[in-house]
Amino acid sequence: MVTGYLDHLAVERGLAANTISSYRRDLRRYTRFLADAGVRDLSEVAESDVSGFLAALRAGDDEHPPLSATSAARAVVAVRGLHRFALLDGLVPGDVAAEVRPPAPARRLPKAIPVEEVVALIEAAGSLEGPRGLRDRALLEVLYGTGARISEAVGLAVDDLDRGQSVVRLAGKGGKQRIVPVGSYALRAVEEYLVRARPALATAGRGGVRGGRLFLNARGGSLSRQSAWAILRTAAERAGITAEVSPHTLRHSFATHLLDGGADVRVVQELLGHASVTTTQVYTLVTVDKLREVYASSHPRALS
């Protein structure tokens, strides 16, 4: 049965060889688990057997270390697929694995850095002499000041920034646009870049100063995501920041610092361009940790 199912996945479904190999390993462990429980045929399997297998995966044994939620979920998907395949082939009367849900992976909390490290990062980016320093500072100010994704920031056109209204138009996932306020620090940095740096960069390319992308590279072309990553990485090294820093770190910091300052989660949702507030609520977990830390260190009866 297992061999037939794996052949079906390879031939009919076209799954990758590595996936088939992983499923084979998972199902071999499953059939061994069933055999040890005295179950010799899929028609004898009960839902409790499938649930028991999942529990065994998470607990581990003398031969196997405990599996992570992600690895255990993959194994459960393989087992559920096997039982569904057997049902469709008429080999079992029902699908006993249908209600056994794979474990949800642990939610990875977004990594934010303190405000003082953000400031150090921006200052380090702007410490380069010439047009590049002004550009790099403006880029990081925009990333942190608007919570923009890196693709949104490097995709900005000059006309997307309305300096009179202090807002920027960002094109998010699926081309969905949103208007986000821009703070005075970012506006000032962009103004300096536009006046003192971008004209020099633009002369190296074909585009005029008034049109095209906001952020240009040294050849006058559009700044790429890879170059933006390199700018941030170099600034972090120059600032002596040892934590891992990525463009998304500034987006995470933007959201976390807003919530720490009392912003409503739905406002932050709109600013980030999240389709659902559920996506944004992961940041509230970070904020609760901060509140708990302050409470523990400040309240006279918080600790025994």
TrEMBL record:
Biological role: Site-specific tyrosine recombinase, which acts by catalyzing the cutting and rejoining of the recombining DNA molecules. The XerC-XerD complex is essential to convert dimers of the bacterial chromosome into monomers to permit their segregation at cell division. It also contributes to the segregational stability of plasmids.
Keywords assigned: Cell cycle, Cell division, Chromosome partition, Cytoplasm, DNA integration, DNA recombination, DNA-binding
HAMAP family according to UniProt: Recomb_XerC_XerD, Recomb_XerD
Segments forming domain Tyr recombinase: 108-296
Family note: Belongs to the 'phage' integrase family. XerD subfamily.
CDD domains (alphabetical): INT_XerDC_C
NCBIfam families hit by this protein: PRK00283.1, recomb_XerD
GO molecular function: DNA binding; tyrosine-based site-specific recombinase activity
Protein name (database record): Tyrosine recombinase XerD
Active site (catalytic residues): 149, 173, 248, 251, 274, 283
GO biological process, one term: chromosome segregation
Cellular component aspect of the GO annotation: cytoplasm
Subunit structure: Forms a cyclic heterotetrameric complex composed of two molecules of XerC and two molecules of XerD.
Places the protein is found: Cytoplasm
